[in-house]
Amino acid sequence: MEVIGKSVIRKEAVDKVTGRAKYTHDYQKVPLLSGKMVISPYGHAKIVNIDTSEAWKVPGVRAILTGKQYPLTGEAIRDRPPIAFDKVRYHGEPVALVVADTPAQAKTAADLIKVQYELLPVVNSPTQAFQKNAPLVHERLGEYKKEADSHPVPDTNIATLIKIRKGNMAKGWAESETVVEASFSFAPSDHVAMETRCATAEISPDGNIIIMTSSQAPFMVKRLIADYFGEDMGKIIVRTPLVGGAYGGKAPVQLEVLAYMASKEVGGKPVKILNTREEDILTSPCHIGLDATVKLGANRSGKITVAEILYLWDGGAYSDKAIDVTRSGATDCTGPYNIENVWCDSYCMYTNHPYAAPFRGFSHSELSFAIERTMDLLAQKLNIDPLELRYINAIMPGNTTPTRVRLNKSNVGNLQKCIEKVRGLIKWDEGPVKVLNDRFIRVKGVSCSWKTSTIDTDAPSGVILTFNRDGSINLMSGVVEIGTGTKTILAQILAERLKMDVNKIHVRMEVDTQTTPEHWKTVASRGTFMGGRAVLKAAEDVIHQLKELAACVLRSPKEDLEIANSRVFLRDDPAIGLHFKEIGYGYKYPNGNTVGGQIIGRGSYILRHLTPLDPETGAGRPGPEWTVAAYGVEIEFDKRDYTYRLLKAATVVDIGRVMNEKAAVGQVMGAMSMGLSFAGRETFYFDELGRVLNPQLRTYRPLRYGENPEYLVGFVETPQIDGPYGARGVGEHGLLGMPGALGNALSTAAGVSLHNLPLIPELIWKAKEANK
Amino acid sequence: MQSHTITLNINEEIHIVAVKAADTLLYTIRGKLGLTGAKPGCLNGDCGACTVNVDGWPMKSCLMLTVEAVGKKVTTIEGLRETPIQQAFVENFAFQCGYCTPGFIMNCHSLIQQHPDADDQTIKEWLESNICRCTSYIEIEKAVKSVLNKK
To answer: Per its UniProt record, what Pfam families does this chain match (chain B) (predicted)?
Structure first.
């Protein structure tokens, strides 16, 4: 391997350190109108009256969108009015949209719109939503248009239910000698991408709808706007430049719809909507919350024989992507353990909370907290070392998943190897607790995870390669550069395959749905796998064309030709050959005659053999492979006031193949950082009216410089045979085990079982007090 | 609101711009001068993505009115040319999405100038005013220390 595995500098590096890198809001033009939302101050209320008369008096106001029923939106169920009509269902929901010449005018006018509300009873948790007599968030749930595999239950708050029924529960319980059961709960939180969401839209006189958006899913924007509003799909052109962090939060389609509606209202003029931080936290979709109950049974030697699991996901006011998150949570409901008998009900519940987007890990960091805490409770009860318990139950080739996929050497990584490696990294054998003095102790906690990516069974990825006259190559892929460096990895894959200098490959960073081949969505750690396969196919296409032309010019059979260092040459006599610059645009004979033309390579990939889940049993193949990982966290705990310091966090992930070492380590460390922040401090605090009390970065406070622990990263490389050079996804996995490992360390340290997030000293104090 | 014409010294160039009294420096450099390296992240001084350098010190440009910059020397990320800290960010993979990067680099650059021998505590005091959501901060620590140690 010449290029694969090397820490190749990211293709957009210089732009990003010089301020030249452009994000959606950095594109300015004149005129560009400004859209400003009026948002609901309550969680659940009837809209009695909206008075826009004062707002209209503000100079520069061109349109006010409100009080009208616009087409319903939503990916799995069409349950969401883009602008609230009749009632509001969450704090932050758009109630009106003002379009004005400048941001200041739009804001002034928005502040003058008077909305009269009548408060309705609030559904403030998924458990409350699940109660028989809970207030209804959607009274007309049965009337909504929906996807075939969404299963809403009318006259309840159930947006969908995914069932897993595997094995024989009675047999499982009979074989078990030790049983533990525990419940866990945490509220929604936020992604906090540093770039707040932004979208602009304009409609040209010929009907072209041009949208620019900070999105992980520009191709989905195109599909959904066509679908929602009956527009011609070919006339919708979506552009996505660099994206300033996403983590799943920019996979849903929201501001794009509003910008489109606003532009339509002002005769197609360009309109920009930029979220303030507060709107980004409240109005745009958040990180899902969960109430979970896990019951595990094991025999005396620690082998888990049965699992019964209830997940109540806090989908919030609208189902959108939460339906898929709920399904994903059911798919991998047990965590990475081989359990023959499994019963799981995974419900997506409507509440009066901000609605949920995917969050890095797509249900797995959340469910892992519940599973991994229960694993530690089981280890405690069995009096088995917690890491050992995980080792003996680790999922392996030959086992089946909860949805009954038979695993093999390729589609699952080696968890036992990950566990052994993490054992060494965190010096587990020195013991989980080290007493420093009367007050301080150092404590370790461990966890494991697995994840498949439950994406659409027909999700595509495409790549186009074009030659420049100097023999260099342009690479166009629909993968969005959201920070993961995937487009640089794609260039490395191409360089490796063509045995050429990666610096001679130019990557187009922006996506334009009219000219870039589609990559379904840049989500689910699937960019390298799917985009990489498409690159390899495009490379084959290029190789074929280069050899075809060279065979003619060199008067040699194609089979005798080899490609390396930007040349096509005779295998047995490399001196005889042609440089790419001599044939990339066709070959020109000395007399001027030319044969061939610009070489354009194309490649596309679509995942194979995926199926939806059976509605009664959950059986099905929802994703291509399972990446596994093991984790450890070490803290220093102050027994006096229950504060703690993060000392070390470790992840060992079976990555298949390391494609770019520094980039891979960076992905894993960054994910751990986000996971510890989620686990240790991030949450929405709701009041009884369903209002989020902390929608600002000084009250919602992610980890900052110096609060981080030391990070340890290890890799295991069990190739995924159908992945490019054996690579598995790695963007999410460092995060998944952090809540579980931190929760386990703190539970040991405090001597009390912790069941909630975030793990703040006050929570520990409350648990201690409750235990007294 | 009435506009006033003022003179600003930005990146060692004199700019004459019409501003309103309430315009923040961030709004002016982005909207009037096209210097979009400084990013809005919270408009509340919480995240540091809009950090620029004013008379040698880091300043969150969302917290400063444009008119306050009159008579001062403002440097934005666009005013840095091949500085060691920019190179160190590249080599250490100290960014991913890149959105917080200009603010972090301006803060680091000011730190290196003001405290070429900064210890861990000083570095923390300076850099904890910026949020990076992609990296683990270790990469940024390595980048800034690689430059400080060279000095």
So the answer is: Fer2, Fer2_2
Nearest CA in chain A to B104: A17
- Torsion sign across C-alpha atoms A353, A358, A363, A365: negative
Contact B35 A26 (CB under 8 A): no
Mutate to test the interface with A, among B1, B134, B142 (most CBs of A within 10 A): B134
CB A180 within 8 A of CB A208: no
Picking from A274, A309, A325, the residue at the C-terminal end of a domain is A274
Same domain, A701 and A583: no
- The continuous run of DSSP H or E covering A223 comes out as helix A218-229
| Closest by Cβ to A18, choosing from B30, B77, B133 | B77
Decide: A524 and A736 in contact? Cβ < 8 Å: no
| CA atoms in the 13 A half-sphere facing the CB of A665 | 16
Please tell me which residue of chain B has the smallest CA distance to A661.
B93
- Rg of chain B (C-alpha set): 15
**In terms of domains, do A422 and A465 share one?**
no
Mean pLDDT calculated for residue range A353-361 = 97
User: What structural domains and CATH numbers belong to chain B?
Assistant: 3-78 (3.10.20.30), 79-150 (1.10.150.120)
Q: Any CB–CB contact under 8 A between A243 and chain B?
A: yes
Cβ <8 Å between B98 and A242: yes
- Say if CB A739 and CB A678 are below 8 A apart: yes
Who among B43, B77, B93 is closest to A666 (CB)? B93
Bridge partners of A104, per DSSP, are none
Q: Indicate the pLDDT class of residue A706, thresholds 50, 70 and 90.
A: very high
Predicted confidence band of residue B21 (pLDDT cuts 50, 70, 90): very high
Q: Is residue A345 part of a domain?
A: yes
Residues A643 and A732 in one domain: yes
Distance (Å, whole) CA A695 – CA A280: 9
Q: Backbone dihedral region of B93: left (phi > 0), alpha (psi from -120 to 50 degrees) or beta?
A: left
Distance CA A689, CA B73 (A): 49
Cis peptide before A758 (omega within 30 of 0): yes
The alpha-carbon gap from A59 to the nearest alpha carbon of chain B, in Å, equals 12
Q: For the segment A68-109, what is each residue's pLDDT rounded down to a tens digit?
A: 999 999 999 999 999 999 999 999 999 999 999 999 999 999
Q: Which residues pair with B5 in a beta bridge?
A: B18
| CB atoms near residue A474 (< 10 Å) | 14
ipTM of the complex: 0.98
A491 in B contact zone (CB under 8 Å): no
Question: Is A645 part of the contact surface with chain B (CB cutoff 8 Å)?
Answer: no
Report the length, in residues, of chain B.
151
In this structure, how many other beta carbons lie within 10 angstroms of the beta carbon of residue A515? 12
Domain contains A24: no
